[in-house]
Amino acid sequence: MAFLFYKCMEVFTAIATALSSIYGPAKVVRDVIMTIVSAFNFHTLFYWAVGVFFTRRFPKAKKNHKYAVCIPARNEEDVIGNLIKSIRRQDYPAELVTIFVVADNCTDSTAQIARDLGVNVYEHHNPAERTKGFALKYLFEQIAADYGVEAFEGYFVFDSDNLLNKDYITRMNESFDAGEKIITSYRNTKNFDECWLSSTYALHWLRSIRYRHRARSLFHLATNIQGTGFLFANELVKNGWPYTSLTEDRAFTADAVAHGYKISYNDTAEFFDEQPVSIRIAMRQRIRWAKGHLQAFVETGPLLFTNIFLGNQFKEKKPKGEKYTKAEIIESIRHRWASFDTLGQLIPTAIISLFLWILVAILIGMCDYYTKGVIDVRIIAGGNWLSKILRFLIGDPRVNISPGAHAMLVGVGLTVLARILMRVAGDIKKIPVAVYIFFMERKRIKPIRLAKKALYCLTWPIFDLIGRYAMYIALFMKVEWKPIPHKSKVTIEDIEIDKKDI
């Protein structure tokens, strides 16, 4: 037994020595890879700065267009009626709006409630097709058969828990009439202050508006669709709805950008939805989002990457020798940039970063500690603000340990501690973002007591923390689509009363 142990240690020492010799170059390669990955998002700070002051405005529409409203619903009897009523009370001509509900594998009275309210209902019963994307696929097949896709100029998509401001369709029609093919809108929350968890979601959607939608729309680029509250032209579903993955919105966004479409944002079209109040439900939802994110990256990422260098792969190429017009050159540049921008949003940076950290800092790093020892290593390492403050408060103690297993264990422990401090420092730095959002969106957020706002600012970083670990879990976990329960009885009239107090 002792001989076997000796031989194992001999082999391990040889491997550790070999890996230790490449530790320096491995760190360089890691840094180069992370620099390249980060380069896909270097411009987002500029978007944020633009979003502080500007967003795209649309002129009053010259024409009222004909729309279909598509509502996929799975056991939504508690909320479906309030959404339909908020659509019925729009200030837009009612004869130009047709409402469709697809009752997707429902076991409650969702379909009957919708029928009683006079809307068109299709019932989809197929347990093997359980995602929202499959529900929309089925709905568009029925619309194509009964009406023809071109019977409606544009299609809205809403979740059953949504509520619309009275002028919502009128405002979205302004964007559509201006020539936009895909438009998303201002996403507010009807249960913002129900608990700290719902507030993190609410702040996230408002952050997306400020950090993503406003600038991209202003520059006629492509922002991203986020599940609900969007409108698109009928040409996008002329061959049906093909996006049936766990996150049909990400797939739709990536595919639309790859085909050359812009995705605009209308800041004046406001709707409300319900956010989770249960950690269990939230975690389930975030893992599904993360899995869908990874699927969209694998499915469309290569095409977006190709478009950056070769242009739109779906557009017919000009004959050899024929010159491009100035407008065509500008559009090509816009599309290449939009592809680069969208790819940057799809790259799973958190997973790449974690993989490189485990490979280089932990696996190869522990070999380096085993072979060379721990030589003058800080207990509190890192250049982040938290590490600097801790070193200022308690000093800068360092560790020296001779080569061997002890050095390896201590070295790995210090490496893990440094990463924890880096992550905590980064998460805490996000608190001012919540303060910024509360200030900038104060006229549109329902009245909330100052003490609650302070609490929500402190808990806000948990949203990204959950998202990060959901991404790690989703990489290895088989994920199935499950509905998010909606129980809020809030109506659009309740929200209007609250707004009077703002």
**Amino-to-carboxy terminus distance:** 77 Å
Helix content: 40-55%
Question: Mind summarizing the main beta sheet?
Answer: 8 strands, mixed
Beta-strand fraction estimate: 5-15%
How many helices does DSSP assign? 18
Low-pLDDT sequence parts: none
Give the tally of β-strands.
10
Output the structural class. Answer: alpha/beta
Rg to the nearest angstrom?
Answer: 26 Å
* Quaternary structure classification: single chain
Spatial order of strands in the largest sheet: 3-2-1-4-7-6-8-5
Average of pLDDT: 94
Task: Describe the global form.
Answer: globular
Order of helices and strands: HHHEHEHEHEEHEHEHEHHHEHEHHHHH
Question: How does the SSE layout of this entry go?
Answer:
Elements: H1 2-20, H2 23-39, H3 44-53, E1 67-73, H4 80-88, E2 97-104, H5 110-116, E3 120-124, H6 132-146, E4 154-157, E5 163-164, H7 168-177, E6 182-189, H8 196-218, E7 230-233, H9 248-258, E8 264-273, H10 279-310, H11 326-346, H12 349-372, E9 374-378, H13 385-394, E10 398-401, H14 405-428, H15 431-440, H16 450-459, H17 462-476, H18 492-499
Parallel strand pairs: 1-2, 1-4, 2-3, 6-8
Antiparallel strand pairs: 4-7, 5-8, 6-7, 9-10
Helix pairs in contact: 1-12, 2-12, 3-8, 8-15, 9-10, 9-11, 10-11, 10-17, 12-14, 15-16
